[in-house]
Amino acid sequence: MTDTPTHCPYCALQCGMTLGGASAAPGPGRRRRPALRVTPREDVPANQGGLCQKGWTSAELLTVPDRLTTPLMRARRGAPLEPCAWDRALDRIAAEVRRLRDAHGHDAVAVFGGGGLTNEKAYQVGKFARIALRTSQIDYNGRFCMSSAAAAVGRAFGLDRGLPGPITDLARADAILLAGGNVAETMPPFMRHVSAMRSAGGAFVVVDPRRTATARQADLHLQPAPGTDLALANGMLHLALTEGLVDEEYIAARTSGFAAVRTVVNAYWPARVERITGVPVPHMREAVRLLARGRRSYVLTARGAEQHARGVDTVTAFINLALALGLPGREGAGYGCLTGQGNGQGGREHGQKADQLPGYRGIDDPAARAHVAGVWGVDPAVLPGPGRSAYELLSALGAADGPKMLLLFGSNPVVSAPRSAAVEERLDALDFLVAADFVLSETAARADVVLPTAQWAEESGTMTNLEGRVLRRRRAVPPPPGVRTDLEIIAALARRLDAPGAWSADPAEVFDELRAASAGGPADYSGITYERIEREGGVFWPCPSPDHPGTPRPFLDRFATPDGRARFIPVEHTGAAEDVDAEYPVRLTTGRVLAQYQSGAQTRRVRPLAEAAPEPFVEIHPDLAGRLGIDDGADVRVTSRRGAATVRARLTDEIRHDTVFMPFHWAGEGRANLLTNPALDPVSRMPEFKVCAVRLEPVAASGRPPGDGAAAGPDADRASVIDEPGAAREPSGASR
Ligand SMILES: Nc1nc2c(c(=O)[nH]1)N[C@H]1C(S)=C(S)[C@@H](COP(=O)(O)OP(=O)(O)OC[C@H]3O[C@@H](n4cnc5c(=O)[nH]c(N)nc54)[C@H](O)[C@@H]3O)O[C@H]1N2
Ligand SMILES: Nc1nc2c(c(=O)[nH]1)N[C@H]1C(S)=C(S)[C@@H](COP(=O)(O)OP(=O)(O)OC[C@H]3O[C@@H](n4cnc5c(=O)[nH]c(N)nc54)[C@H](O)[C@@H]3O)O[C@H]1N2
Ligand code: SF4
Ligand SMILES: [Mo]
């Protein structure tokens, strides 16, 4: 076969790679499909010839032994999943849609999408929900990922586009402050840009409760208690003011609303912020000085600062800091959020979100409805309004007023959703669950019908990386026999449901329709074509016409707000939704390790990755472990108000004494999300993955400690209290 230039199937860095070396014809048995050879591309700015271990081993995903190659169906609930023909599976799904919709209305059927889907698929999933199912009940896993940063950026700058410019700009910065990101593990080649900056004299400041692989490479590491970043950012802005480091000229020329922020941060005097965060005042002062010493610095946030019940306000506090220092809207400087999933950026633009139409349009906006309905060939009146956000949608499944059926494309919420034992109960309360996946994920295993789909190297389409650069995913091999693409599945279902409009399964045709639907919207792709992407090595949106060069740095002249100014918004620290107390005295935070990806559905099946990171664990400081009688390598039971998990103890002095950390990549009794708190941000509806209160106990060698089972069932009353953002929140102790 000829070599195929494409991009990695995993994260938002979308490292360039070339796939080659195998025969184009699928082997006789799927197990014997020859593995493709992965070679990193030097010509892609994001990775410049680098890949992480996940990228290097990505071709093994195509040949995992338990790859799905035929639809599976249960005759009834409780019966086993059995292979069946495509027509039977699709007919059954269409029949269930009709039955449930006739009985309960259009919102009886829900859709859940993913930020790993190509732009074409994300667009088609959203369109399918709105005009084939006519349901308002659609959202996606990006709600758990980027939603707080997206909302804060939209609020401040009027347009949500991850990084403010090409990633290669970072190398020329004076300083980068990264709050809540462990890029050395979550996107390792990103560190090349950081290293280049440091070699040129720039400073790297990391804000993380753990001394991570990333923090170890920093010039300065601030180690706050989880859930206190907002206070930290306000405190840094306070220091910038007292030290005369704010850029008054820039503030006057390019922003609005600073006076109110100045008043609020007045109360964040250094000693108070040190008490709240645990970060010594000299460290805060040093961080501010490093950021302010030139005017070419970046403030970046990732999930550590964002996945909180006050995530939007926390990001806002960091944006306020960046604005006060005069960074956003300058070339080679600014605020940026690090998008996570492969198409985390494009996946949040084209209509998978509960409140959104393609092109990042609001589903409430009459002009947007008219435009998109025109492209779809329907009356705007048939388009539903906004639906429930991801966690609210999952929580409503099977409830009296909730959806009775769910179609799932590209997520594994049994492992990745907060308080996941309750989510499992909701999935089981459905009349009918459909999952499209290429492996039998923990969620697909609970479905009534499972549809086997093609994956990255077997399909083409576009992905928008963390820079906002639209890239081509190219097909290197055909899917195994029996497998269909998501676009083929959606088209086949739309036809069975007599949906209006065109339902092409050809990615190029779907992309052309997406371009038309996005035209004139904030995320305007209308000038982008597959040919241009190939020729130019990617195109930055917005790109409103074929002769438009694309927009690598969107805010140089003006922000996308009505008056062209960036908005300062005053925000106050209130602390985590769930504080520690005598019963649950330790803070738990969660996140990632290098060798596993997300719910692990993919990476747990790739042998070298499973060997590198075989099992769940909890990181504990030796002092805390000593107090609790926990030895390194011993089994520990971690309990929160939502449930309990049993995992291996990993003792490390790289974490704060008062905090423990669990990665969330595994299913079963070590699942971090048995513990997490689904308190939601009032604006973004992001759950508080990054902090909750737990207690830890050693598990006797003979088994579990006395007490109830591994997944304590949440009682409904507490659930409704905790779901109310802020309701379970107590004032944060100044002594933490
Ligand atoms: N190996 C690997 N890489 C991935 C992924 C993966 O699953 N595995 N997933 C991809 C996706 S979708 C995403 S969203 C990104 C996520 O990328 P990151 O945001 O870098 O990943 P996390 O590990 O979730 O969180 C980063 C850090 O936040 C810290 N943290 C926890 N609580 C707090 C807090 O309150 N404040 C601060 N400042 N820091 C805190 C954690 O200690 C952790 O080191 O990674 C992408 N890349
Ligand atoms: N405790 C805790 N929980 C978290 C987080 C955390 O930091 N802590 N992070 C959150 C974040 S940032 C994220 S992004 C979520 C991610 O969590 P999930 O949404 O569960 O993400 P994945 O594990 O990537 O699940 C993708 C599933 O879809 C399949 N799939 C992949 N590509 C395709 C495709 O193109 N088509 C179809 N049909 N299927 C596909 C995969 O095989 C896999 O089963 O987890 C969230 N959960
Ligand atoms: S950093 Fe992300 S895109 Fe690059 S090889 Fe690793 S997983 Fe793939
Ligand atoms: Mo994510």
Automatic annotation (TrEMBL):
User: Which keywords has UniProt assigned to this entry?
Assistant: 4Fe-4S, Iron, Iron-sulfur, Metal-binding, Molybdenum, Oxidoreductase
Q: Which residues form a coiled coil?
A: none
Write out the ranges of the annotated region (Disordered): 698-736
Gene that encodes the chain: nasA
| SUPFAM superfamilies documented for this protein | ADC-like, Formate dehydrogenase/DMSO reductase, domains 1-3
Q: Which GO terms describe its cellular component?
A: membrane
User: What is the recorded name of this protein?
Assistant: Molybdopterin oxidoreductase
Q: Where is the 4Fe-4S Mo/W bis-MGD-type domain?
A: 1-66
Bias regions of kind Low complexity — which residues?
Answer: 700-714
Q: Name one GO molecular function term.
A: metal ion binding
Q: Which Gene Ontology BP terms does the record give? A: respiratory electron transport chain
Q: Which cofactor does it need?
A: Mo-bis(molybdopterin guanine dinucleotide); [4Fe-4S] cluster
Native source species: Actinomadura rubrobrunea
